[in-house]
Write a sequence for this structure.
């Protein structure tokens, strides 16, 4: 329980600080592309426990976004400085101008649109649920009625819950109690321990989990419409956004993006739009 | 367990442990005199300074370390004070522990018999002499158990620094768990590590107390 209080506080603190910093005079100003070129470096932030997008193996950052970042390093005419930080402070860091780019799989959402601008989507990553393999009580979406579930605090899954509720409606089902975790690995651990019955996360993250632990977890069905992750910059930072989109378009054209998608997600996404605005 | 933890991950965990140790120790060493300074500022009853100290101490005692950490890291640069993550971490832990230490010192100072001060004054001791020879040794003795307790609390509050990317032992364990999907081995090691680290403080305290008793018995 202590852990839960702590993560709520960190979340509240992150949001409060983002607001405070945004109201502060000359605060929350992100560096423009010209300023980045002039000072000679761009600061990007990645996560440290979001396999397969970004994670740390033997002390070194790896995963889809980190490999794409390596390509960006070769493309950029300036140095790229990387900060590896946990999720709760990441987007706040971008919206306060501490980091120029969130190089992570930040889902494009309506809620984030006022503070962030997103690059072109990098995957099609709808929400699924995962359950314990041994749990025979859950076979279909209808069985999720009243079952307790977990997700990551500050993640987009929460806003998409009405879609799951809509799927439960035909069988008069209701969402069970929700627990929000500091990060998904904590949620997986509680799922394995039986403290919750299912975890909602993206297809890519969950299929990776199930691939690694096939005896413990099992992938369920889709519980949302389209979810598209992308990199993010502070709202209105058009120069940096255009620079990133130029790079990503080139990677898409050359097939580099597709090969990284295949390597880390097991499939490539060739039909992604160049711009996407979420209705959620 | 060896099967589940690669050598590289083991090294990451050791790095995390060394970060926890060095930042905690630095904060403890800075926080004890700083706490004393804050307590003295209150004790001397200087009008404005006293109020300022009361506000600062109350604020940092009331705020969770995570919040202080985010505040320093994100807000200080916007007011023209550049801080990196490690500096913000050290600042957070030091101010956090200093605020609690100052209350410990203050309690000891308030309990201190003023007659002793009068006596020292009457034999012509200067203010600094009175403090270093008469007051400090006695309030140090009185405060030690509470100060050691606060040290252990600081060590346990230290994972808060991970929120801006300083990798302490808890974060290192979390990262390994996220990579291997086996969080138990790294967290068990972190668990044992904290136990051993805190035990050192307790042991140190007992040794100092034991010696003192011995001295008192001799004299």
């Amino acid at each position: 329980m202590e852990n839960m209080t702590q993560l709520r506080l960190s979340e509240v603190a992150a949001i409060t600080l983002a607001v405070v910093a945004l109201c502060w005079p000359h605060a929350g100003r992100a560096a423009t592309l010209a300023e980045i070129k002039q000072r000679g470096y761009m600061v990007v932030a990645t996560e440290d426990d979001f396999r397969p997008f970004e994670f740390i193996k033997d002390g070194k950052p790896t995963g889809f976004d980190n490999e794409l970042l390596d390509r960006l390093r070769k493309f950029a005419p300036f140095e790229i400085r990387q900060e590896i930080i946990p999720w709760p402070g990441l987007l706040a860091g971008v919206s306060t101008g501490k980091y120029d780019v969130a190089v992570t799989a930040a889902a494009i959402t309506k809620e984030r649109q006022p503070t962030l601008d997103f690059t072109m989507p990098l995957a099609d990553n709808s929400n699924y649920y995962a359950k314990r393999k041994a749990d025979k009580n859950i076979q279909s979406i209808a069985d999720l009625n009243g079952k307790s579930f977990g997700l990551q605090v500050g993640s987009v899954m929460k806003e998409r819950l009405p879609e799951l509720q809509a799927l439960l409606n035909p069988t008069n089902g209701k969402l069970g109690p929700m627990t929000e975790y500091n990060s998904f690995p904590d949620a997986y651990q509680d799922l394995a321990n039986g403290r919750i019955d299912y975890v909602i996360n993206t297809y890519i993250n969950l299929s990776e989990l199930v691939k690694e632990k096939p005896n413990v977890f099992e992938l369920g069905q889709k519980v949302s419409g389209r979810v598209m992750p992308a990199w993010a910059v502070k709202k209105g930072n058009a120069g940096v956004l255009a620079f990133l989109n130029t790079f990503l378009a080139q990677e898409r054209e050359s097939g580099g993006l597709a090969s990284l998608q295949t390597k880390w997600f097991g499939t490539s996404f060739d039909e992604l739009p160049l711009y996407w605005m979420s209705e959620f | 367990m060896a099967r589940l933890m690669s050598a590289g991950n083991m090294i990451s965990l050791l790095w995390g442990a060394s970060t926890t140790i060095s930042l905690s120790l630095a904060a403890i060493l800075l926080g004890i005199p700083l706490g004393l300074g804050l307590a003295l500022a209150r004790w001397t009853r200087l009008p404005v300074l006293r109020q300022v100290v009361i506000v600062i101490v109350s604020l940092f005692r009331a705020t969770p370390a995570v919040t202080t950490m985010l505040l320093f890291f994100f807000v200080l640069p916007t007011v023209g004070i550049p801080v990196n993550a490690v500096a913000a971490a050290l600042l957070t832990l030091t101010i956090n522990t200093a605020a609690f230490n100052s209350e410990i010192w203050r309690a000891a100072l308030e309990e201190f018999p003023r007659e002793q001060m009068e006596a020292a004054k009457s034999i012509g001791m200067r203010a600094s002499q009175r403090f270093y020879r008469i007051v400090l040794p006695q309030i140090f003795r009185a405060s030690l158990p509470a100060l050691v307790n606060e040290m252990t609390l600081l060590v346990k509050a230290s994972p808060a620094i991970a929120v801006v990317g300083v990798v302490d032992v808890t974060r290192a364990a979390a990262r390994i768990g996220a990579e291997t999907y086996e969080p138990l081995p790294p967290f068990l090691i972190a668990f044992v590590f904290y136990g051993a680290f805190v035990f050192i403080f307790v042991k140190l305290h007992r040794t100092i107390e034991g010696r003192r008793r011995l001295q008192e018995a001799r004299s």
